[in-house]
Amino acid sequence: MIKHIAGLILIMLFFSCRSDINGDQQIPLDSAEIQRIITDAPELDPEEAIRAMVVEEGFEVKLVASEPLISSPVAMNFDSKGRIWVVEMNNYMPDADGTGEEEAGGKIVILEDTNQDLKMDSRTVFLDSLVLPRALCLVGGGILVAEPPYLWYYQIENDKPINKQLIDSAYTEGGNVEAQSNGLYRAMDNWIYSSGSQKRYRKVGEEWLTDTTHLRGQWGISQDDQGRLYYNNNSQNILGDFFLPSLGAANPDQRTVSGFNERIVPDKRVFPIRPTPGVNRGYQDNVLDDSLRLRTFTAASGPIIYRGDLFKDSYYQNAFVGEPAANLIKRNILKKDGFTIHGEPAYEGKEFLASYDERFRPVTLYNGPDGALYIVDMYRGIIQHKLFLTDYLRSEIDKRDLDQPINLGRIYKVIPKDADINTVEFPENPKQLAQLLSHKNGWVRDQAQQIIIDKNYKELAPALRDNLRNKKNSILATHSLWTLEGLGELQTVDIRELLNSSERELKIQALTAMSSILDENNVNDFAEIFSNIIQTQDSISATYLAFQLGHIRSVQPKLAQQLREDLTETFPQNRFILDAIISTLSGREKSIYDNLGETKKDTSLLFVKKLENILATIESNKANRDINLLRKKYSRGVSIFRSTCQPCHGADGNGIESLAPPLNNSDWVQGNKERLIAIVLYGLRGPITVAGKSYDHIGGEMPGIGTNIDIVDEDISQLLSFIRQNWNNDAPEISREEVIKIRKKYKDRQEAFTQDELYRIQ
């Protein structure tokens, strides 16, 4: 393999010009250096690592921080002083077996540039002795810290933690480090959202609120200028929401809601500049191309929507995605059509940034206060967690000594060449602070909004209200709206004025924020506006109105019923509006269906079909097995299910959109034992049909757990018995001996099974 790699170097670029670490004369990499870096995968110092990068013409990469100032960084936040708060996951995979991973070596550190040379030079440990911390969020004069399974809040006093408070004892579930909740993104609507979670959080005064939201993504989360969220999973480019995040998650029996978890960029191809044999499934056909380079995403990190003011306008609100396994960062261009958003990669056959260095691991990306694009590079050889580590990848790790060194790490920023870098100072004066809500840099606008709310500057309400009337700057009006909402100063007149705006974006922002002020005293003030939205067949605004029917019903049931009937009659085939309506009907689906009347139960009507589907789901859920009995009988199996299966297949076994098909009512789960054991031991790849439905749109591969040294045959027996007898499934348990038999039968196998291969097992 190594000889093959060396031969491939001859057909690569012979050199690549990069700026050195201090921005001096460009230093070329010659072909010998490239060959050494690719073949030996040596640890590179930061200057060498930057020289090993190829970034889009017109840009350069600058070092912001590196070891020993930081180690194993996985997430960061800027504060209003321009300091960087970093999560260090120091004990992640110390070796290929994960030895010592449970030790409390994680930290939260504060990095500061004390000499104003645009590089961090000071390190302060804020928290230490953490076990695999994974996310943080500065809010309300304190900080949220995710330390599985807990979510903690600390007040900050002189850069020290005080008054530790438990916000959630189950922020994450299971032991799968790659699939636990993370992100803690403070969005425009003043709620804090996470990737890989159905919970959102908000601090109101001294009280913490927790609410249900959509399950989104796997690692990382971001927003655009309107507050819509974007995310992905390991094998997708970009997923995201067409609608604002607070909507559509109120019905627990509704498996999917149109407009959420949409595939924004379906093109999953990647174009590394180096061979990438060190990926978990590199031995399989079509994972690597003829040059041994990864073809599609396999370890995608969450996208960042670029909202800075340093790049050209054509880059604004582009989506950048890191792929640590391919040592690159992809740029995607997004386009909006009505309320739908679609995108495509900016280039064919190349990437925005790629590295020859196998240890370059861009795990998260961020906007910065200076308008730059920031990269958190975990900088290490092993990125795959032990839970699914294949023998093939272990061999690749051994070939190039990728298990050492650990606990390095870098933060870089990408800027245009010769850019004039300016830092923003956040004034103490509230009026001056409010002026930053119209700043060209989205990060600055977000930060100004958050400071105003955290410091409770209610005296700004009149000025913010004036901003709502600024027809020339809808972004300023949007931030002002949500700042008023966060201060608790939003009024009926504010919403009415925006609902009558000719600017549709402001109208839908108002329809979303309306729920925070709607009551029995003002609901009738909006009735005429609601009716006009439907009568003019404004399908975009009508969808937002449909999402709010639950709130309207809580204060005026008759109005809500009339609006629902008008919406279904006016938009009978609009899946977005109908799903929005159903999202507000939790517990009332059957009574509404029964009251439709025979003339309205035409099975060709989409609303009727959707109601029948959710009624079937409700009946199915009623028949679910008693989970407590199964937990007692298969305790180890339940634990493994939570860590390995639940993140993709869901706690209810009904599968997760774009990730995995259902286990509940699955013929694969309840059928042939040998097939099921083979899938779990060795994995499954390619499209699969479950209960008559094809799942060819689900990307990636289900990895097997047969090589995991921490999971023994009895564990697998319990896991499979648990899922065969859970939910609506009703099949005999699987014994340890049956697992051993299949393991012996396929003892030399490494590849995951395909559906066709499984069908041949009788």
**Continuous helix count:** 24
- The top-level CATH class of the largest domain is Mainly Beta
State the total count of DSSP E strands: 32
Low-confidence stretches: 1-25
Going by helix content, strand content and strand pairing, the class is alpha+beta
**Quaternary structure of the protein:** single chain
- Average pLDDT confidence is 92
Instruction: Write down the domain tally.
Output: 4
Distance between the termini: 37 Å
Could you give me the name of the CATH homologous superfamily of the largest domain? TolB, C-terminal domain
Rg, Cα atoms, Å:
26 Å
Quote the CATH topology of the largest domain.
Neuraminidase
Helix content percent band: 25-40%
Work out the strand percent.
15-25%
Layout: helices, strands, pairs:
Elements: H1 2-9, E1 17-18, E2 27-28, H2 31-40, H3 46-51, E3 53-55, E4 59-66, E5 73-78, E6 84-88, E7 106-112, E8 122-130, E9 135-139, E10 142-147, E11 150-157, E12 160-168, E13 182-186, E14 192-195, E15 199-204, E16 207-212, E17 222-223, E18 229-231, E19 238-240, E20 262-265, E21 304-305, E22 319-323, E23 328-337, E24 340-345, E25 353-355, E26 362-367, E27 373-377, H4 391-399, E28 410-416, H5 430-435, H6 442-454, H7 461-467, H8 474-487, H9 492-499, H10 504-513, H11 523-535, H12 539-547, H13 549-555, H14 557-570, H15 575-582, H16 589-594, H17 606-622, H18 627-633, H19 635-649, H20 667-670, H21 673-682, E29 683-685, E30 689-690, E31 693-694, E32 701-703, H22 713-725, H23 736-745, H24 755-759
Helix pairs in contact: 1-2, 6-8, 7-8, 8-10, 9-10, 10-12, 11-14, 12-15, 13-14, 15-17, 18-19, 19-22, 21-23, 22-23
